[in-house]
Structures
1.
Amino acid sequence: MKNNYSVFRDRFEKLKSLIAAKYPESPNGIILLLGNFEHETIKFKQESSFYYLTGIEEPGSVLTSPISSDGILFVPRYQEPRSKWMSGCIEPSDKQAQEIFVQNIEYLGDACRGYNIYPNFSQNEYRNLIEFLKVVVSKKVAIFTLCPDKPGAYVNQRIQLERLARFVPELTERLVDISPLVAQLRRKKDKQEIELIYKAINCTMDAHETALTILAPGINESKLQAAIEYAYASESCRAAFPSIVAGGKNSTILHYHDNNTELKSGDLVVVDIGAEHDYYCADLTRTYPVSGKFTERQKEIYNLVLETQLYIQDLAVPGYWLNNKDFPEKSLNHLAKKFLDDAGYGKYFTHSIGHFLGIDVHDVGDYSKPIEEGDVITIEPGIYIPEENLGVRIEDDYWIVDGEAICLSEELPKDIDDIEKFMALEKEQGN
């Protein structure tokens, strides 16, 4: 799907239709989408909604488009062609404009001072976009963009808008947040998106298998992490989030990222990892016995977590919520907690039962609405008992289709017997 701009054009046109339906009083409005800036020490990743709607990976890009016609893509200008330094660069050209479904590609303004453009841009570097926005504002039309009043959402975009507002009087007054409409589009995954998610899942399952070939008492958590991320790179993927490799007491820390402790015989290790393939993410957790065999106590807790997951899996259908305190009888999170409460371990389940999954690991989605056809979610119960240095989490990825939750990661073993046999086989093959 990458660079198949017809797919992205279809999505963009759907967004236009949603905007036109919700804001019929603003037929002459302008859509304004802002891409991410580049970071010199981290591999660039385009802003998720910008990529979902455009397929454009050029850092610093800005797309403007009337509701009723194609628009303009603004790209940064550099002292010399960026293509000399980076691959896949976009330059103003009629051919590229036609491919990307815009009328024209223009430079944002004058040349940047280096080979990156930063949030603290100068007025000159954005000169052309600023003049364009001044004209739009003077017409007093709506500017539809991603600017939710929610902490942590679209932070880079809001920083850019605040910066632009310094040079464009009354810009802020014209902004209309369309993030709920974009979330509505992004939430329902099509088959092409499922294929990409499934590729990320397959890579993640391979990474689990790779880790098990070296898992043994005395190995450091960091070596498991290295094996996992080597597996990602071998399949042209990267980590969707910082890998969690948490053994012993660390297994009770929900988002443990240190990954620097020696694994001990008799302990469990929680491996919560996910690959990213062409922007789409996986998120799979398994809990393994370091020595290859579960103790009886570990089996007790592990089987309870697995029973919880299977129970919730059967309930994860349209009409149920992931988490809704107003409807606890149909809230998967509340039902999972009740299941574990009844077993005497509710207080040890300290996070939510799951989340939406897609371009972002914690993907956009309105938790106030029930599960719908096309959703991709995780189901990840866990029990964490600090006083016993005992933590267990099991997480799989599910596609809601035909009225049920289809497990996309079912090939990764999770029954105790299967895990022990799987570990023994992987060790044998690894040696």
2.
Amino acid sequence: MKNIPELVCPAGNLPALKTAVDNGADTVYMGLKDATNARNFPGLNFDQKSIIEGIRYAHDRGRQVLMAINTYAQAGQVERWRCAIDTAAAQTASLQGEAARAEEELARLNESAAQGGLQQALATKLEREQALAAQRSRYDDLTQRLRASDERRMQLERELEPLRQRITELQLKEQAARLGAEQYTQLLADAGADLAAVAQSIEESGVRLHGLQGEIDRLHRSIAALGAVNLAALQELAAARERKQFLDAQSHDLTEAMNTLEDAIRKIDQETRELLGHTFHTVNEHFGRMFPELFGGGQARLVMTGDEILDAGVQVMAQPPGKKNQTIHLLSGGEKALTAIALVFAIFQLNPAPFCLLDEVDAPLDDANTERYARLVTAMSGQGTQFLFISHNKIAMEMAEQLIGVTMQEQGVSRIVAVDMESAIRMAQ
């Protein structure tokens, strides 16, 4: 058999000794509190009381205890060292005496006594097991009876639940009937009714209580549907009537104002139609007259593109000499320019202004058209309108009474040159 080494642990104090024994130490050794180099540290090593307690704790658990004297004899302290040796020896002798007494006590416990105690213990065990079995049987019987009682109780509870609900319902009906009777009695008393006469009338008329109750319930529902009585309803009604009268008056005023405005709008639309129609026809006549003067023939007119004159557009129809009648968009650039000049002068004839400014209107025109344009401007200037025109065309310049030119004899320097045509003609003659 393999030898297992023993575990030897030091014990600095009693708690440490117990911990070592409880955790499997085979042997512990302790030091004396007054025979150690660490005697000045509180809580370390053992005094007389802790030595006895520690040794008994270890021996009760089959562990060995060793005494350690962790010091040596020094000068002046020999007596303390000897005392430590004596203490260790005394503890050893005391332990040996206790061991001898334990062996004697063990010897007195012979085998027969042990056998007798074992038989007595077995008999006691058997008796207690029988008593335990009887108690268990009784417990099982009581448990079964208790379970049956619980099931019966639950069944009775289920049977009683509808009865409880019925009782509660009847109690509520009885309470409602009592309150209703008290309410009706109070109402009859407040109304000063003769209860005897009412009872006699009900009996003579053969009124059925169930039908009467139904009618009462219907009346109650009708009253509940009406809601709470608004005590301020009359005041609110008066205020609402006053408000309605005010709003009716405002509505009447607004209606009259709308009618007035609609009449005014109709009159304005009528006058606008008449004025616009007259203006359109006048401009169309002037345009039809000036177009042949500028083109040397042909014809032109303005056409409304809608039935409603206020919403309709205006389309220019022009027919130069030798061409078909077509819109202004299909003409050449020069024809468009002459047509536009004719239209502008036609509008200008409607309400002539004292001044008229023309900025290079003749630029896209050839010489023949320029001559007709110049004659037309000359003719219109005799009607009280002064024309100011900008042109680079010599033919257009010939119709002017005064010429104002801009020259640049030096680079970046412009000069104005004015020429009076009448004076120039006289000088030339």
3.
Amino acid sequence: MTSRALISTRVLGRGKTGRIEVGRQPPGCNPPAAVKNPIDKCDTDMAKITKRTVETAAPRDKEYYIWDEDIPGLGLRVLPSGRRQYIVQYRAGRRSRRISLGPSTVLTTEQARSRALAILADARSGKDPAADREARREALLVKDLAERFDQQHISLRIKASTAKGYRRSLAKFILPKLGQMVITDVTRADIAKFHHDLRHIPYEANRCLEIISKMFNLAELWGLRPDGSNPRRLIQKYPEVKRERFLSLDEIKHLGDVLREVEQEGREMPSAILAIRLLLYTGCRLSEIMTLQWDYVDLEERVLNLPDSKTGAKKVFLGRPARELLESTPRLPDNPWVITGIIPGCRLTDLQPFWQRVRARAGLPEVRIHDLRHTFASTAIAAGHSLPIIGKLLGHTQVQTTARYAHLAAQPAMIAADSITDVLDRALAA
């Protein structure tokens, strides 16, 4: 103990060293300023808590406390192990409360003094910092909201393919940045910064923004946030440049050559080759072909009756090559799927590895599987078919969706114009 800090001491107990009365404080390990929270069987000292005080506070047989002379309530807890911990003690109503500020290996004395002053100021204003801290500890985090969002929304209301994308965005982008935040603490500034940090991938940034919007709308519905407090409000999406890649006739020929070659080599799964051809012949989405069942195939009517596409129930019209391709495909017993997998009774689940090998071999390294759908549409435009017909073939429910191909409709006319004017130009020059 520091002798200058002692006004009087008195050993309590029956001949045993026990509690020490420091100054004019009541018995026990009480800080100055009459903050009463008796701790039995411990010692107390008083000194100004400085870096030197902390470093020289030697461990004893039992824990003891050093209370700061300048800041009533700020203390240093010294354990027999030698570990030292800053604490602050205050009174909230009739209750004495104590908060751990942190170990001396993490906090400097100045940081501890600053934190203690802030807590004591809150206590004087009528707040209870310890209760607030406990409430925050028990408060739901964004990761808890995401779990409930998955259970009560994604799993019940979102299509399986879309749900996979939702969970990927949550796991890869949203939860690493926002998962440990308390739901009620998330602000528009937090979401704006999160969105800004993903500006180099605008599609993902916008996708995450919409997932966050849905989560926090539900948080309001579930009473976890005040009404009208969705932090996604007023944040503008980034412009997205739609990729309009489609294969030329020469590129289609190269692709066809490669498919025939791998078919003859016999090293690739026939169902994977079938899938690529059906994607090109039908303009279907990847998920529609990969989940195609024989029950959906009506070869007499030359249609695929898809019960659950991206836009709901959908009828896909089969051209002659597509129909003949399906007619020549053997149906495996006890397997309902058209695109079969290795495991009996199961479908092929991942076409990407096969497609990557095929496109590299065909000299089309940047072409995506979805570009086969664009190729179907562009070929239809070049053949002179109208946008409404093409939209029907692709299963579009909105005219605006098909209108993205409108600029291609001018290409056949431009080719014709070039041909006609070339003839006229040669005649004029003769």
4.
Amino acid sequence: MSETIVLRGVHPYGEAAADIVVRDGVISEVTGAGAGGGDRVIDGTGLIALPGLVDLHTHLREPGREDAETVDTGSQAAALGGFTAVFAMANTFPVADTAGVVEQVWRLGQESGLVDVFPVGAVTVGLGGSQLAELGAMAASAAHVRVFSDDGHCVSDAVLMRRALEYVKAFDGVIAQHAQEPRLTENAQMNEGALSGVLGLTGWPAVAEESIVARDVLLAHHVGSRLHVCHVSTAGSVDIIRWAKARGIDVTAEVTPHHLMLTEDLVRSYDPVYKVNPPLRTADDVAALWDGLADGTIDIVATDHAPHALEDKDCEWGAASFGMLGLQTALSVVVETMHRTGRLDWRGVADRMSVRPARIGRALQHGRDLAVGEPANVALVDADATWIVEPALLASKSHNSPYAGLELPARVEHVLKAGVPTVANGMVVR
């Protein structure tokens, strides 16, 4: 039996103060005030209570690149960011394209114990884009895979994409597509536009993303399957997804925190910390992403947390790897761009960062309401606090944060996963 924990004086979804009582991993009582004592009482006066966050898109690098991240260090970063569940992408070494590899990742998550780690299975063997991977075997494995993606690579072959969409229908899976037409992005380094010409960097046109999104929503509609669009970055993609949803097509989409906050202008520095796939876009694209997330066209925020070893980022722009950290800063960025601006209230934040991603990934114990009888996955957030991002102090093994030196709002103070504290007073606990 787990201990009884009382979260005293918290504000569920930023609303009226309440005491939340947790017993045996479940919320047993939500009272206006004055709940009895427990084995542990956490003073949550003034703190916002949210369901534990869920990240549908992370790169935990294990197996194969433990120099950049491990499942455990990534789990620490996730817990400190308010997450209780993360999905780990398949571009590991070896690739997570078999039941054996996804079960290895799942077990590493179980051993760490800080968050539930759900492996994402590769769509194609070795991410090669020519042969379907063992989708059924991964779905039937101990990892119970339901999300499949070749993230980092686009499933550009239309026939193969159709077959994948058809296949996953049998077990209620979803294909998460990295929308990038490969021929239109050969050697691409940044967003295509006037600035790429000035900087002398090969441009990455918006249409390279939008053309794949358009094709795939039509394919999903044709076969009656679920499609998820990873890291939407352009206004045109938002328009296409809005059009598809209006016609009843079963498509969902995500936006990253960095695409909500940062623009291509940062590339003027030639600092590879700003090199990311898809690239940082224009201010107009950012505004469209704000609108899309606010009105539900974009369903969720997902970090695309992409740690890299020092040598893969501390080099010239052309040689640097794509990607940036995101787990510990995600909530703060969403608060800054979406909550403080009035685009999302706290229930909206919970919806986009917990409820919907859990639903898309079929993480059934997560993204639940803060109500009696529900699993006690809870994050307590000090919305009034601010903090300075210092990459060297982040829990990740890597330090490639694009927010270095920035002051961000909102700090995660406590996290419970299934009623067990994983973060207390802003520190990881085990």
